[in-house]
Amino acid sequence: MRIDPAKVDVIAPNFKRRLSGVTSTIVQLVPVMQSRGIRIATVGPGLPDDFPRLSWRDLPRLRRPPAGKPFRIWHARRNTEMIGGIVLRDLLRLPLRLVFTSAAQRHHKPFTKWLIRRMDAVVATSKRSAAFLEVPHVVIRHGIDLARFHPPAGDADSWAATGLAGQYAIGCFGRLRHQKGTDLFVDAMIALLPSFPQWTAIVSGRVTAEHAGYAEALSRRIADAGLAERILMLGEVDDIKPWYRRISLYVAPSRNEGFGLTPLEAMASGKAVVASDAGAYAEIVETGVTGAVVPAGDGMRLQEAIRGYIADPSMAARHGQAALAAVRATFPLDRECTELRSVYDTLWYGASPAG
After folding, report:
1. Which of 66, 100, 120, 250 registers the highest number of CB atoms within 10 A of its CB?
2. Full-prediction pTM beyond 0.90?
3. Count of H helices and E strands in the chain?
4. What are the structural domains of the chain?
5. Residue among 297, 169, 161, 306 at smallest CA distance from 232
6. pLDDT for 129-162, tens place per residue?
């Protein structure tokens, strides 16, 4: 949906066509920020058609500041988007200030450091990612849309409604690749499910061409174990939200991660989470209360943490309710929007307005 550039205060570029965690963040944030009175538009591919968007043909109209503001804010989340903002601000001399959100949990390469130093404000998505920044910054953890991700609301959200085997299900969702640790989950299921016949495992996520061999190897491993009807590879489903509501336990076994939204999505759906300590998972999941956190890449520790829950489904249910309460208290999307608005207001006005 094209929008008048004069009515845009914040631009959220998305320079990646394929769905990613960054894209998911933009998809969640934009509607809520609009509802909070923040005049935001996107630019780039891969976003819903009904999102407010600018095109590159609108650039000449960005030479004038928006009404009531000294400049627009360009909020980048990738290197390419920082480069785009620098070109617009410093070469084309558009009235822009640049914000960058960093989720990386590694030492930045020299060029990335150079880009970050040219930002007007920097946001880290976790304490861990903040530790790798060498510039002033604020930590704003992602939130989750509690209207889109919610606990079961009826019979259609039950596991029985799927018609699949078992009484309970355990899920692992996201792109299938070594980084995401899908193989660690599959290995744990191969080891555990023969002893727990009431449980079925669900793996869902996109497989890109470069990771097709990885996914095929997992399917062969499952078949060789005789568990093709107990460990189901669904591929990429049209809507993952109902599957969060149908499972009883969620596993996030990533070897490395930026922030990682899937544990929040599961917790908002009322599910306990077993996660590695990659990304911000250790800042999201509280061991013994809302789930369990294990060292990234440690398949045996992951397996033992999962065993405790599938041996005692009532514990999974209790911790799922605690997870829901924790997300509602700490990770609502409104909180993230409020904190981002504070960053924007500091740039526009020099200090965040009271209240």
Report:
1. 250
2. no
3. 12, 12
4. 5-143+332-349 (3.40.50.2000), 155-330 (3.40.50.2000)
5. 169
6. 999 999 999 999 999 999 999 999 999 999 999 9
